Amino acid sequence: MIRQATVAASFGMLALMIIMQGARGADARSKLPDPINAGVAERLYRLDCGHSLANDESVWTPGENVGRDIEFSSTCWLIKHGNDWLLWDTGVPESSLNDPRGWSTLPKLIVYHLDKSLTDQLAEIGLKPGDIGRVAISHTHGDHIGNMGLFPNSTIVMQQAEYSWIHSPNGPNDNVNQLMALARKLLGTPKNLQLIDGDTDLFGDGSVTLVSTPGHTPGHQSLLIHLRNSGFIILSGDVVHLEENFEKNIVPSLNTSKAESIASMDKVRLLMAAYKATLFINHDKSQTDALRLIPAFYD
Ligand SMILES: [Zn+2]
Prior knowledge:
Shape: globular
Strand order of the largest sheet: 4-1-2-3-5-6-7
Order of helices and strands: HEEEEHEEHHEEEEEHHEH
Bound molecules: zinc ion
Oligomer: single chain
């Protein structure tokens, strides 16, 4: 028993060393927390930020499930740290609330529906959008930044690479170009913009770390949070869409880089080993439906 625990602990340390070493070249300022001494955030709330129906699962699982319908969840997360509130992603636009026609980022492929507004869900625990000091976004696809307009005074935290990408010239994939144009529209010009470069410790105590996981988009990121009772949890963003994709290393055709996507999934696996972390996959509806929903929370 003791030997097993020792082996597990040293594998965790090894995983952490591998990630740190990998970060040295690409990102000399990697700020991953110390698994033993990391601080904690008080609460993590899940918000229902929409659900969607796509008519061809193979876009996300190339070569498999051609022409098959798939339903995805859309999730936002709210973090309480001391007196600060941090929102992770803003979901499907509130303008589409209860609209039977739904809303779309790529009309031929996917339609989103919203049954609960972000504003109403914040109100369930006595908050207004103006109470949210910081909004961090995993990436700039419309279903993740649909409600930026609710947070004009919040500091918007995103990777510099993502910001530069959506303001760069169009590439060869028309779907991707459409998503970039929509991203510029939905993001607008935030008054308070914090552009970061690589892994970033948000509160300076190791409790909440934005982790660079490019590939789905060039500046995509995930979030590593440390809680007192739940331990470490990774919020995926779109580093992976489905549990099965994670197991089989499958990369959606809409991703901007297959190689980076696979490297980022590897990085998440190492993080899970190093921090004994649980992975919450944003769009995996069967996993998401089983998780606690605001006003319930993880602590
Ligand atoms: Zn996406």
